[in-house]
Write a structure and sequence with these properties.
Helices cover about 25% and strands about 20% of the residues. The chain is of the alpha+beta class. Among the domains are: about 150 residues, Trypsin-like serine proteases (Thrombin, subunit H, Beta Barrel), CATH 2.40.10; about 140 residues, no CATH class. Strands 1, 3, 13, 14, 15, 16, 17, 18, 19 and 20 form a ten-stranded mixed β-sheet that branches. Helix 6 runs antiparallel to helix 9, helix 14 packs antiparallel against helix 15 and helix 15 runs parallel beside helix 17.
Amino acid sequence: MDPVYRTNLLSQPWEVPSYSSVRKAFYGPVPYNTQSCPYAPVSGHFDYTRLRQTNPLDLIYSQSPASPMFGVVPLAHTLSPLLNKMGTIRDTQTGQSLGTCVLIAENLVLMARHAIEGRNVPYLDVTFGYTEFLGKTHSAGHTLFESVIENDPSLDYAIVKLKGPIGKRLGFVSLNTQDHTVSEPALLHYPLGKPLKVSVHAFDQTPYQTQFLLTYHDSDSFSSGGSYFDPYGRLSALHLGSQYDGKTLNLLRYALPLRKIVTHHPTSILHKFATRELSQSRSYTSQDALTYLPFTDHQFLMDEEGYQSEKVLRRLLGSRVQTDRNIRKTQRGAISFSPTNLQYIATTYPAIYRAFQKECLGVTGVHAWTKQFSVTGVIESDHTIPHDVWKSTTNPKMKKFVTGRGSRPGENTMPAITIPYDKHRPLRTTGSSPEATDFRRHLTALCNADRIDDALTLCFQEYAAHGINLRSYRRQITHSLSEHVKLGVITDAQKTKITKKLFPKT
């Protein structure tokens, strides 16, 4: 387990302007209303108390042997056996990175629930031990997800069964479900879908945040599901997401301690692992396994897979977000989407603004995903079949999605696509004009007669009638129809029928 030592110095990636965390306030003040959790005297502490996102192999291979100090544990020693147990999750249908997970048994991984909400679980894959060293990437193994065997929307965790027992070869992590997390744990995660990174910073427990831990580790999009380890190499907490401190613009990260899971769920498989009622050195399954997790609201303010359109614009603008003081920001540090600010960006950076619109238009999936690409007055997330048709129809294929409370129950689980706002407003699928009302009544009648494919065809033809070039959206429409098939609303044969009507051969 001892790492191979080398004498080359650790590079400092945060000094590179293109590196994401160069834009973050890293050494901001810890809030005054916190209660620090002291070190357990027998567990020691790492030789790093602050470490930005760093390639763990760089850390391991660059650390020179030093005389051991009582109570100080080399971070490199702790990391070495953990790297291959960390997985990065990807949606095979869209190619999108989703987050991080960790092996807890031969065929089970633990992750943040929100990372896979609204996804078809068997179409997700995971790569373990994805690391980088000397400019080359390496991976230890790869497999597919199969089903969710345990989850809790309020605590935002999920335990997922893998297709094969890859943990038999790669191993799994030890669990700390009893002790408090040390003051400065190490976070292993896959930010932005990049190779594995390690971060170290402070941990605090606020008296107002009873379920989650407050941490300051350097993380990023898709770090969700990352693992916090103590010097023993035990998994102590799960990384969830973050919010901006309105005064300092620091990102405050939230983590879920494993002890909260076992406290809330004494029958959890984690609790059974901790009490040794079950062995981690086995494969498991469940009769109540799920292949789809619906979206839910989470108690932390902003997960790091947050508002996608802002992230797209921020990425395209790059360093201009900081250097151009005319680009306005919200109190939480996000780019303001006010009309005047968007107009300034469109006028000053027209090529970037066009690229921004192009990337955010034509996004498909369920509304909970597509609405994250909407921009008020610019881009609209439009249900492919209007919500009130879903709500009014008697067709059980559609009615089952109308769940929950509020004026638009179930809208987040219904398929949608992003289109230009100015094209959306005149559509008969929206509004309260007599023509729009009659059109939606006709759509409802078609759905009641189980002619959902004909209703979908009319909705897409309505796009064409109001200036949307369907052929330029062909790939996105095809993907949207696949979403309807996946949800059981139409069949593959009906998808083919719709495609032939919308895109006849010339």
